Amino acid sequence: MKTNRANIKQAITTGGTSLGIEFGSTRIKAVLIDKNFETIAFGSYEWENRLEDGFWTYNLVDIITGLQTAYSEMKQEVERNYGVTIRTIGSIGISAMMHGYMAFDYTGELLVPFRTWRNATTGAAAKELTNLFQFNIPERWSIAHLYQAILNGDKHLPRVDFITTLAGYIHWLLTGKKAIGIGDASGMFPIDESTLDYNESMVNQFNEQIAPKGYHWELRDILPQVYISGEQAGSLTEVGAKILDRSQNLQPGIPLCPPEGDAGTGMVATNSVRKRTGNVSVGTSVFAMIVLEKELSKVYPEIDLVTTPSGSPVAMVHANNCSSDLNAWMGLFREFYEAMGQTVDTNKLFGVMLNKALEADSDGGGLLSYGYLSGENITGLEQGRPLFVRTPESRFNLANFMRTHLYTAFGALKIGMDILTKNESVAIDSILAHGGLFKTPVVGQKIIAAAMNTPVTVMGTAGEGGAWGMAILASYMMTKEKNESLDDFLDKKVFEEVERLEFFPDGFDVKGFEVFIERYKKGLVIEQAAVEKLTV
Hints:
Layout: H1 5-14, E1 18-23, E2 27-33, E3 39-46, E4 50-52, E5 55-57, H2 60-82, E6 91-96, E7 102-104, H3 123-133, H4 142-152, E8 162-164, H5 166-175, E9 179-181, H6 182-185, E10 191-192, E11 197-198, H7 200-210, H8 219-222, E12 225-227, H9 238-244, E13 260-261, H10 262-269, E14 277-282, E15 286-291, E16 304-307, E17 313-319, H11 324-339, H12 346-356, E18 368-370, E19 387-389, H13 398-409, H14 411-423, E20 430-435, H15 443-452, E21 456-459, H16 465-479, H17 486-494, E22 500-503, H18 507-522, H19 524-533
Parallel strand pairs: 1-6, 6-13, 9-12, 14-20, 20-21
Antiparallel strand pairs: 1-2, 2-3, 4-5, 7-8, 10-11, 14-15, 15-17, 16-17, 18-19, 21-22
Helix pairs in contact: 3-4, 10-16, 12-13, 15-18
């Protein structure tokens, strides 16, 4: 249902809106929605991680600047379009890239630069903890970063008072509360489905493991408190209002929902929080989330076990690399075009180049590529070396080149998904996809459907992204009916009238992808050699 201009102005004035802010890997986005879940205004800030002293990181200045800039752009759009200054908001939610490590002392000082999910530096810790817990602990998880710091004897550890994720940190800045949503928490430490909290027996195991170190803290002392979707996790303080809104028009007291990770907001944005549903989020990294009906039969290092924002168990396949190398090649083609004295629209460039993949041989013509800008946990590579190779017999043309780069963007994901569908016979009723790749119609959807060998749906809201999903969670907290579950709220209120476009796997593409993925797996020895022998 469309909302008229007068109603929007009233909603903005009276606080009948919800705001979602998400810190993605390349953009920070702020989305303001009305009671009908339609976007009123949008703001953003471009940023990039840096490799500093061996760690992928974002600095605090960029974090705060990006937060303020995204909010300011959104606020200015409201003022331009509706002639209203935002002074209050019905509810706010903060989301960010999951995992990683932010450690603070009791004064709130960041003890080491933010270590993001992209780092593949915690292999020893992840392996030890997986063996200790008999539960897969991926290298990205906060507990792996903490334990690796312990194994390394990092000097900051005796000063640790609090560790959290990026979303948890921003929420703490704005509310003063050390809180985290259960979905984001499940990327810090394993969650017990029955208690909807950190797994107590594993917490005790960890404490016993590190007891000889003699730290003044135990694990629960330094972890944020877990909250479930629909709960209030604090209110905007006076200090928080001044941090968020540099113009200082925004008033304190606004309720905030639990901060969540981008995996959780992706599930919300695609309405895939019910059991047997799943979603694929495509960006700098790529991950698939499948809500499970039953436990997996054993521990798989390729599969993370996390939760929905309401605490249901989810199998997550996360690959560190997806679109970055493809985007780099597109930048090269843009340079060529400009060197020829031409200008090209970005959307047209992507549209033309990606659609060439539809003309390709089903397996990509014997070409092979690894778009590893960073290390890749699923395939066991600690460092990234983007690589494109071919044999003299390969059919090297533009169509095959583009299809190969699309296939490889989902290569590591495919390996993990095959474990779920082939080894564990996980039932999936529907997969919903979202991300920038789907701005070009058809191509991305066909490739994803081939990789999953299951129907893939793209909804009319697919371009809205995680910030919109976070705004939905903030709205759910404020407007849900008594005992109304998140999945019912999404089904009956948010997505009931949303348009859907479903793509079924094409046998030609499925067979071709299977041939490619065997080549991809065999060729990993080449990629490993590149990591070992090539210098940056």
